[in-house]
Amino acid sequence: MRREFNMDIIATYPSVVYKVVTTSGEKMDIDNPVYLPEQNFIATISEPMVKAYLMCPNEYIGDLMNLAGEKRGIIQETETLDSGRVILIGRIPLNEILIDFHDRIKSITRGYGSLDYEYDGYEPAKMVKLDMLVNGDPVDAFSLITHRDKAEQRGRALASKLKEVIPPQQYKVAIQAAVGGKVVARETVNALRKDVTAKCYGGDITRKRKLLEKQKAGKKRMKSVGSVNIPQQAFIEVLKA
After folding, report:
1. How confident is the model over 177-202, as pLDDT tens digits?
2. Run of H or E residues at 188
3. Does the domain formed by 128-239 have CATH 3.30.70.2570?
C-alpha cells in the first residue's frame, strides 16, 4: 500500500471484539480501545474465548500447560494421539493467542508442536484500557485493552520498548503507561546534549553558567510547543514487546 498508493501505514495491535454493558444498560461491541467507555461507566466486559487444541510430544506437556496458564487459559482435558504425542484441549482468551502464542509453542517444542482453535463464546473478564502517553499526550496506536492483572506488567514492557525505539530529542521525553488516569509505569528518553560551552575558553565560569541557563530555558520552551517524532519502526517494535 505504501508503494502503490503512497499511503502512510501505521502498525497497531491486532484487536478482538469485546462486549461491553454500560452502567446505563447500553450494550456495545468494542474493537478499538479508543471507543471503550471510561471505567466508571462500565458494568461488565466480556471477551471472546477459543477452544484450543495443542498437539505436542509427551515431554512438552508440562511446558505447554504452563504457557496456557500464563495466557490466562485452562487445559481441560488431554487426548493421546499415539505413544509419543498428545493433544491438550483447553479454553484461552482470543486476545492472548493473537501475537506470539504460536511462536512460543514452536519454540518450546522445538518445532514439533502445533495449534488449532475454534471460537468458544464469550466470558466476563476484568479488562481495562492501557493508555500510552508520550510527553503527556496519549498515542492511540499504542493503546490496548488488557486484563487488569497484566496491566502493570504490560505497561512496563511497552514503556521500556518505547524508550529503546524513540530517538532522542532536544528535550527529555516522558513515556508513561496509565490505567484510568493512574500511571503504572514510566520511562524517560534523555535529551540530546550539546556542549554550548565548547567555545568558552579559559575559566569564565559566569559566562558558561549563563549559556547553560539559556540552553535550559530554550529546551523548556521547545518542549512546551514541540511534538515528539515517533518513527514507523517504533510502532512495529512495540508489537513485539
Report:
1. 999 889 999 999 888 765 544 555 55
2. strand 182-189
3. yes
